[in-house]
Amino acid sequence: MTDEIKSVSVKEMREIENKAFASGTSVLELMERAGKGCAEIITLQVGTNKKIIIFCGPGNNGGDGLVCARYLSENQEVAVVLPIEPKTDVAKENLERAKKTNVKFLNFEESEEFSKSADVVVDALLGIGAKKGLRSPIKEACNRINQSEGFKISIDVPTGMDADSGETDEHAVLPDATLCIHAAKKGIEKEWEKSGRLWIVAIGL
After folding, report:
1. Which CATH number fits the domain that encloses residue 65?
2. What is the rounded CA–CA span in Å between residue 122 and residue 120?
3. Which positions ≥6 away from 77 have C-beta within 8 Å?
4. Is the dihedral of CA 128, 131, 135, 140 positive or negative?
């Protein structure tokens, strides 16, 4: 991590988001910007016509992953795994949108073979609101990501890392790169060696 990268706490990030909501930007719009930005950076870094698998969790981090999958499917072979079905309204909306594209949806068992041969494996399981202490089936999804030989990318923070303290679960994802939404989080600044390369995704905040 370099001095040029400014980090924010979870509280500060929430305040930044709330200002955007107060000014009329919707959660759905911010998710669209985040997911699209992630897709653009992934394409820039790895090229096109790659085999990509994205593990999406039940919250808005998973929603970011679903938006990312939708955009990536325009020029990549993309599969999505949902260890837990989306629970937030915006994530559910983006699941429906993704189903109308070329994105393949695999169950966890089917994902094993695909993840072994994938060029890129994306962790969109848990975001900045998650705390240490991974439970099934997220724990198993993290293990599958770590076992893959593909280039591993986490969206916003590696799943299993506390976004403020940097403390990590023993099953935490160990990515080759992290796509930091708006800015790197404090936990990444403290434990940057567990986050891989840092790529900042600008979402207009």
Report:
1. 3.40.50.10260
2. 6
3. 49, 50, 51, 52, 104
4. positive
Q: Concatenated DSSP letters for 127-188? A: -TT--S---TTHHHHHHHHHH--SEEEEESS-TTB-TTT--B-TT----SEEEEESSEEHHH
Decide if 135 is inside a domain: yes
- The one-digit pLDDT tens for each residue of the chain (205 residues) are 334 457 888 898 898 889 999 988 899 999 999 999 999 999 999 999 999 999 999 999 999 999 999 999 999 999 999 999 999 999 999 999 999 999 999 999 889 889 889 999 999 999 888 876 889 999 999 999 999 999 999 999 999 999 998 899 999 999 999 999 998 899 888 887 889 999 999 888 7
- Does some domain include residue 2? no
Q: For residue 24, which amino acid is it?
A: G
Nearest to 67 by CA among 45, 48, 88: 88
Longest dimension (CA), the chain: 45
Q: How many domains does the chain have?
A: 1
Which residues span the domain enclosing 147? 7-201
What does the block give as tokens for 40? 């653009």
Residues 6+ away with beta carbon under 8 Å from 100: none
Query: Which residue type occupies 118?
Result: A
Residue 1 lies in a domain: no
